[in-house]
Every structure is written in C-alpha cells, then in structure tokens.
Amino acid sequence: MKRMYNEKTTFDKLKAIEDLNNGMSIRAVAHKYSTSVGTIVNWKKKKEEFLERAANNESFTKRRLTSSSSILDERVYNWFTTARNNKIPISGPIIQEKAKKVANILKMDTFKASNGWLESFRKKT
Fold first, then answer.
1. Cα separation of 13 and 3, whole Å?
2. CA-to-CA dists, residue 40 to 5, 11, 19, 92, 109, angstroms
C-alpha cells in the first residue's frame, strides 16, 4: 500500500524535536506525528534550520519564489496542504476558486485559474 504524503509544518517539526528533548523515544515521536523514524532523525539534525525559519516566519517548503505567479502557487499550495492535513476534501474547482481569491489579493488582474494552470499546479504538488 502506498503511503500518503503528509507534509508537516515547521511548528510541528519543532514540537517533535521538543518531544525528543523531553524524553520521548524516536519511535514514539514518529508514531505521534505519523511519520517514519528516519524522518524524525532528519528533523533532529535540522533543528537549527527550523528554528531560524520559524524566527523569520518562513514556510518550510523547498519551493523558491521567483515571481508573482510563484507567490500565488506557494500560497495556494500552503492552503492546500493545511486543508489536506486536516482531512478536508479538496477538488480541482475548489483549488481554482482559492487561486482566484489569492490572485485578487496579489493584484494579479490578468490571472485566470484555467484548467491548464490547475494541471501545472497539480504536477508541482
């Protein structure tokens, strides 16, 4: 059975590291956060990076922002992962509607949340 991808926030990662520091075993922390032991070990190694990102209010995604469309994609992606982590069902039209709202906030007047945009967005996620 294929494992469902479930991205954790920087805050969750720091809470997991705190649980380790408070004496929880790596296996118990992995179970609590529904992830693997290896992932917890990697989070522990990256503690300083997570602390720096949290201090700067940076999201912990590997995407790089280069343009307003990238900013839009990033914001829609962050919303999408939060909804998915909360087990909220999300369809293509819902994603497109959210993208239109974000584009409006970003003053991207020419943006169209087309089916082509949606397909590109799905390939990125």
1. 19
2. 15, 14, 11, 32, 43
Amino acid at 89: P
> How many C-beta atoms surround the C-beta of residue 78 within 10 A?
16
pLDDT mean by block of 10 residues, the chain; 125 residues: 63 89 93 90 89 67 53 88 88 93 88 89 78
pTM, two decimals, is 0.47
CATH code of 68-124, in short, is 1.10.10.60
| Sequence-separated (6 or more) residues with CB below 8 Å from residue 53 | 10, 59, 60
